[in-house]
Amino acid sequence: MNYKSLLSCLFSISVLVGVPAGAQPRFITVASTTSTEQSGLFRHILPIFENKTGIQVRVVALGTGQALDMARRGDADVVFVHARSAEEKFVAEGYGVKRLPVMYNDFVLIGPKSDPARVAGSKDVLDALRKLKAAAVPFVSRGDRSGTHMAELALWKSSGIEIDREKGPWYRDTGQGMGPALNTASSMNGYILADRGTWISFKNRGDLAILVEGDKRLFNQYGVILVNPEKHKHVKKALGLAFIDWVISPDGQKAIADYRIGGEQLFFPNAGQEGA
Amino acid sequence: MLPLLLQEVSFAVNGRTIIDRISVEIAAGPRTIILGPNGAGKSVLMRLCHGLLKPTAGVIAWRGPTNGGLRQAMVFQRPVMLRRSALANVIYGMRLAAIAPRERELRARDVLEAVGLSHLAERPARMLSGGEQQRVALARAWALNPEVLFLDEPTANLDPGATRDIESIVAQIHASGTKIIMTTHNLGQARRLGDEILFLYQGRLAERALVDRFFRQPVSPEAASFIRDELPQI
Amino acid sequence: MSEITQALGAAGAMIFSFDPKLIEIVLLSLCVSLTAVLIASVIGLPLGAAIAVNRFTGRRALIVVLNALMGLPPVVVGLVVYLLLSRAGPLGELGILFTPSAMVVAQTILILPIVAALSRQVIEDSWQEYQEQLRSLSAGPLTSALTLLRDARFSLVTIVLAGFGRAAAEVGAVMIVGGNIDGVTRVMTTAIALETSKGDLPLALGLGIILLALVLALNATAYWVKEAAQRRYG
After folding, report:
1. C168 phi/psi in degrees, rounded to 5
2. pLDDT at A6 over 80
3. Which of B76, B93, B97 sits opposite C132 (nearest CB)?
4. For helices C141-151 and C100-136, angle between their N-to-C axes, nearest 10 degrees
5. In terms of CB atoms within 10 Å, which end of chain B has fewer, N or C?
6. Rg, Å, chain B Cα set
7. Do residues B60 and B52 make contact, with C-beta atoms less than 8 angstroms apart?
8. Which chains touch C (3 or more CB pairs under 8 A)?
9. Partners of residue A60 in chain C, C-beta under 8 Å
10. Do chains A and B touch (3 or more CB pairs under 8 A)?
């Protein structure tokens, strides 16, 4: 039985009351996204890392925008998200040391089986989006500056639609995480862009199914960044690097690839890949 | 501490005068009864003397020597019992008077026996009858060995049997050397317990006399009328 | 309807299999909320009593503010505490963000007004009854406050349990300052939020049923304590 949290509670309380805490477990704080956590990936790979190194990894799961902001404030040691341009900006601003590609998963376009917009089976997501707008069918957007949200916005843009100006009441901007947004889509029989991982573990599907997948433009690249210790002195540089090094090492990459739900691999390791 | 001197003492609230320029000196010795109809200001006068209220005009002063601080106690019309045993209530009073811990329980038991409540010492005080609670209140006051004991209509809410018990205890306390200052609107009680009467009427001291003379030949018309109207009660 | 039966099934399965993750989450919830209510009571009960028995300028404004703070939205408290404890914030050096300590801090702030405001009310009601007697016995404000706290102990237990219930049931504050970290800061309410957002509604409902059972047991205890005390001490 895992008493870690109870011990942690008591340790933390003793810290609070000023009593020396004694042996605190070695740990790092990783800012990541809700979709990554909810996919269950961390539950699978982190114990492997912890057993190997004795370093506890504490994942705080937020939207990508929030995760990066949290890191800018210095509340995390490592960032593990999937929004390349935001990550590169983060590093360029000096908050991160270096961005390293880790793995990718893909997005899928989910919708009701009845498919009023007639997009099922398409291999062209941009075309599908145009059809959605034309049909004015309910579409749920995460609207929370997450990686998924930013990918969605990028796709609208690539399809030639200025979604901010051209959206109508059919476009539901919910400001929610992946799970709640899927709940919303399920209850209104709407379309939604989701990461495959969350979709596979999502249990409240209602009448929804995957309608469009496989388009290269739907690939979702993850990057890992060490928060810059020069900006925030308390960042656990050695421990954070240990984690990053492991995650891009053959061991870590294999752990990622081994994670499956219902026999299906969710994440595809590609550390070291050019241009990823 | 005694004598207690009041000089032109007044007390007003929201423009209403409740005590109107009372001057009196209360000396040690006799049992002083403050008598008067309801609304005369007896309770307020008590509280002014005891120190619970401050006069809005005039001076109240204890003119006698104070050895060991102001030792006075008060028993109210409704006894206030803490959620503890009767014994604990009596001990509580002594704790505040800084009486030595070793002495407290001994004295408490003594005094509870004197008021006839030894058998109820461990009972939660709030579960006792009205008369019994008032006896605990008296015991609590008596245990402090006060120089002056104020009593504000202590038997107004009690039946005749309980009233007799209380009156007998008050007599005992007086016999042990404590000055008694008590209010009542009951003429019979005033006669039984009092040595001197301060008769209050509409906030003024209408008359002051020894008890016999007061009832035989009241000088003020207010007192005469009061005694006449209340006659059936005697 | 089937979701509810599924939920009951999920709850039953979790409880009777003594699922270690579940036990960990429940114990952490209890640990955090109990610590918070303990600290809040140690500060809040005396604070409430102090406000009840003292008179000072701004007292009424303070009471109004305290009463209003009872309705502090947990998510607002969470946000403020997060900004304070963030590395970028004034108390960042403490390094307690995303630990149970931060959750304790947030919940303490949340329930302190409840404990203080309600105890102030209870003590003030007692104060009306006891004030004259306590002052007569020379009890100063501090002694009076302590005496009243002790006398009102059963009502205060109810207040403390109410505070605990509020803490155990909130999610907004602990989610933000704790981060809902698996195995570290995940408590019942944040676990329910997580499972709901994953679409695993039976599991979320199951956890919810357990939480409700806990809160119900608490309220039953509070009621029973009050009743028993009433009968015993009056």
Report:
1. -65, -25
2. no
3. B76
4. 110
5. C
6. 18
7. no
8. A, B
9. 98, 179-181
10. no
B23: tokens are 């001057």
| pLDDT value of residue A92 | 97
The DSSP line for A115-170 is -TT--TT-S-HHHHHHHHHHHT--EEE--SS-HHHHHHHHHHHHTT--HHHH--TT
Element (H, E) at A173: strand A171-173
Would you state the structure tokens that stand for residue B146, as one six-digit string? 């006060």
pLDDT in tens, C128-184: 999 999 999 999 999 999 999 999 998 898 899 999 999 999 999 999 999 999 989
- How far separated are the first and last CA of chain A, in Å rounded? 40
pLDDT one-digit tens code per residue, B52-77: 999 999 999 998 887 666 689 999 99
Q: Could you tell me if B81 and B133 are in contact, meaning their C-beta atoms sit under 8 angstroms apart?
A: yes
| C-alpha closest to that of B152 among B57, B231, B49 | B49
**How far, in Å, CA of C51 to CA of C112, rounded?**
14
Two tokens, residue A264: 């299906």
CB contact C151 to B (< 8 Å): yes
Instruction: Identify all chain C residues contacting A205, using CB atoms and an 8 Å cutoff.
Output: 199
Query: Which letter does DSSP use for residue B124 in this model?
Result: B
Residue A267, min C-alpha distance to chain C (Å): 18
Question: Do B36 and B226 form a contact (C-beta atoms < 8 A)?
Answer: yes
Residue of C3, C39, C98 for testing the chain A interface, max A β-carbons within 10 Å: C98
SS3 A35: helix
Query: pLDDT grade, residue A17 (50/70/90)?
Result: very low
Q: Identify the chains in contact with B, defined as 3+ C-beta pairs within 8 A.
A: C
- For residue A234, the chain C residues in CB contact (below 8 A) are 87, 95
- Tell me if A204 and C99 make a contact (CB, 8 A cut-off): no
Between CA C221 and CA B138 the distance in angstroms is 38
Residues in a beta bridge with A56: A27
| Degrees to nearest 5, angle at CA A73 with C98 and A223 | 85
Distance between B126 CA and the closest CA of chain C, angstroms: 5
Those residues whose C-beta lies under 8 Å from the C-beta of residue C87, and which sit 6 or more positions away, are A73, A74, A75, A232, A234, C95, C97
Verify whether the Cβ–Cβ distance C28 to A6 is below 8 Å: yes
Amino acid making up residue C229: A
The neighbouring-strand residues paired with B227 are none
Which of B50, B74, B124 minimises the CB distance to C233? Answer: B124
List the one residue out of B94, B125, B118, B44 whose CA is nearest residue C233: B125
Task: Give which of A27, A1, A6 is closest to C32, Cα–Cα.
Answer: A6
Range C114-128 average pLDDT: 96
For residue B96, give the nearest of C129, C143, C151 by CB distance: C143
Question: Does the model's pTM come out above 0.80?
Answer: yes
**pLDDT value, residue C2:** 74
Residue C215 CA to residue C232 CA, distance in Å, equals 26
Q: Tokens for B97, please give them.
A: 């008077």
